[in-house]
């Protein structure tokens, strides 16, 4: 029976909701984050929802912390069946303004954090014939303006997921990649970028989502059970992805118009 899951970024937002969704199925959960207070709150909610598990502080930028977490999963659960690489941070800013440090930080958390998570837990997943769920973003598919470093990190997560999908099929390890559009969480708290006006714009986009983090966790659960690789929880995201495949130039025109509007709004007053 498969019932052991590890989730990074489980102290808030989507990671917490994924934990609760799986807890309701009676799973045992390893919950990791740099936010220890958030982790404790998630564990209390998980227990109330019927799950059990443990929390461990883990910065996904540090491979030794991920291998220590894998070791803890081994000792407490005898391994895991599902790995959810969800931890992530927000960034924004036009390419000309983003520093190389902004790039390094974004790639270290949002891309290399996922690479390191997969590497640390692969031996356990090979043994359990388990599955990997990587949380990317619609930014992996659409590359909107004013967030090139985020777009590249998330496109990297999708490319990694596709690479693992084909490499690991023979080993019976399944792979899923989740690409949500904006939705309301605490993601803005981690925002880093050269232009404060851009942060406010991202905040508005998060607020505008028609669906919640809990809805997205539900959708992920349903699509994982159905065996879907690419999981697009927003209806508008599914439509935009179809448009990009049919007529990419139309989408680039829309994005270029959006860039003009964003640049006008981001001017210092
Ligand atoms: N909210 C959105 O609009 C949106 C859209 C698409 C994709 N996503 C992705 O969803 C995932 C979850 O984000 P969220 O929206 O729930 O945000 P959130 O800020 O509420 O949760 C992210 C969690 O990741 C943790 N985290 C950050 N850096 C970390 C690190 N180095 N090591 C370990 N944990 C770390 C944070 O402490 C936080 O608890 C992220 O990968 C994000 O990029 C979010």
What does this structure look like?
- The chain has a single domain (4-265), classed as Rossmann fold (3-Layer(aba) Sandwich).
- The longest helix is centred in the middle third of the chain and has 29 residues, at 100-128.
- The radius of gyration is 18 Å and the shape is globular.
- The mean pLDDT is 96.
- With 269 residues, the protein is α/β, with parallel strands linked by helices.
- The chain starts with a strand and ends with a helix.
- It has a seven-stranded parallel beta sheet with strand order 3-2-1-4-5-6-7, sandwiched between helices.
- Helix 9 (235-246) packs across helix 10 (248-265).
- It is built from ten helices and seven strands.
- Bound molecules: nicotinamide-adenine-dinucleotide (NAD).
